UniProtKB/TrEMBL annotation:
Cofactor dependence: Fe cation
The organism of origin for this protein: Marinobacter nanhaiticus D15-8W
Record-given protein name: Iron-containing alcohol dehydrogenase
GO molecular function: alcohol dehydrogenase (NAD+) activity; metal ion binding
Lineage, uppermost ranks: Bacteria, Pseudomonadati, Pseudomonadota, Gammaproteobacteria, Pseudomonadales
CDD domains: Fe-ADH-like
PROSITE patterns: ADH_IRON_1 (PS00913), ADH_IRON_2 (PS00060)
Length: 395
């Protein structure tokens, strides 16, 4: 599975640690930004997470001239246009996104409109449409899962046409990602669990899919080690700032890994399930991960065996017979999911979600086959194959 040719790209400046937020004014002044629009959602504001960001900006003499705090979980072109209008009215010159994947994707899309002009977001959908840098843009993630702060993609719903518009361009990457443990300290247990499993899936698929390369492997394995070593610590003690920071860094590392090596069938099934059943993305990732690894097993036995070192530690790796290491790695993932079910009721099967019916499985399978990430799955997938995985994941 080694690549004779590959490309690796991550120009995002990462500012991480216990006083990372205090560096925001310096980053903004470095790009001559003086009028910033902050984009977030109601949950982030209600959790009090804006205060430290606003305090850091105020102390550093940076103006946040407007705050938009109404980004929905599934953002749409209407929301993006409304925020772009505010940006123009307030004569803003920069954007900060504070939140999870939806707020970050929304901010990326707003940046397209305010930089390129016009109101027709769909005109910029697809890959490589953007040809020049956008406005200054910083991201402060509040979940340790999506990795959106270091990915060159955004997805926005066009509700009138009932489609999701994908945007891919290196110009969508933020100028800086601010990783501060204060931002994830108040995450509820089930969201902590689901987002961490999202990052675990990013890393695992990045390490086992078709476009893996030595640089993405380094980020992917480091992310797996940090998640498996810190997730249960955070579930036991949610206020553990050090372990929270480790999870946040793991999410960023996994984001760098998969944006350079792509993902596979777990994401294809997850995207389809999200679209049809409206299940959160991280939850879908957690449900499907072991079943897809079992489906891909004979094609990925070598990298999956190696991943056991990072998933369970060198002692377990050394005492597991070489021929059983790949299976042992899947078993470690199942054990972790069982613990998360015990502590936060994170579902392990589609049935346990209570939001998927058996008659939806074929629709999910058909939609998954049309998903772009399936191209990078290490084993080819037919409709029957997808159905077999879904039936196993059903419970």
């Amino acid at each position: 599975m080694s690549q004779s040719y590959y490309e690796f790209f991550c120009p995002v400046k990462v500012i991480a640690g216990k006083a990372a937020l205090e560096h925001i004014p310096y980053e903004l002044s470095g790009v001559a930004a003086t009028r910033t629009l902050l984009i977030t959602d109601k949950g982030v504001r209600a959790a009090g997470l804006l205060e430290p960001v606003l305090e850091a900006c105020e102390e550093g003499g940076q103006d946040i001239v407007s705050i938009y705090d109404d980004v929905p979980p599934d953002s749409s072109t209407h929301v993006v246009k409304a925020i772009a209008d505010i940006y123009r009215e307030e004569k803003c010159d920069s954007i900060i996104a504070v939140g999870g994947g939806s707020s970050i994707d929304t901010a990326k899309a707003v940046n397209i409109l305010v930089s390129e002009g016009g109101d027709d977001l769909a005109a910029y959908a697809g890959a490589g449409v953007l040809k020049r840098p956008l406005k200054p843009f910083l991201v402060v993630p509040t979940t340790a899962g999506t990795g959106s702060e270091v990915t060159a993609v955004a997805v926005i719903a066009d509700t009138e046409k009932s489609v999701k518009l994908p945007f891919t361009s290196s110009f969508l990457l933020p100028d800086a990602a601010i990783i501060d443990p204060r931002m994830t300290l108040t995450l509820p247990p089930h969201i902590t669990a689901a987002t961490a499993m999202d990052a675990m899936t990013h890393a695992t698929e990045a390490f086992t899919c078709m476009a893996k390369n030595p640089l993405s492997d380094a980020y992917a394995t480091a992310a797996v080690k940090k998640i498996s070593g810190n997730l249960l610590t955070v579930m036991e003690n949610p206020k553990d700032g050090d372990a929270r920071l480790e999870l946040a860094q793991a999410s960023t590392m996994a984001g760098i890994a998969f944006s350079n090596s792509m993902v596979g069938l777990v994401h294809s099934l997850g995207h389809a399930t999200g679209a049809i059943c409206h299940l959160p993305h991280g939850l879908c990732m957690s449900v499907y991960l072991p079943y897809v690894l079992e489906y891909n097993l004979e094609t990925i036995r070598e990298p999956l065996s190696e991943l056991l070192i990072y998933m369970a530690g060198p002692d377990v790796y050394a005492t597991t017979p070489a021929a059983r290491r790949a299976e042992a790695c899947i078993s470690e993932i199942r054990k972790l999911r069982d613990e998360l079910y015990k502590r936060a009721k994170l579902p392990r099967t589609l049935q346990e979600t209570g939001q998927v019916t058996e008659d939806q499985l074929e629709r999910i399978a058909r939609l998954a086959l049309d998903d772009g990430s399936i191209m990078f799955n290490p084993r080819e997938v037919t409709l029957d194959d997808a159905m077999a995985v879904l039936k196993r994941a059903w419970g």
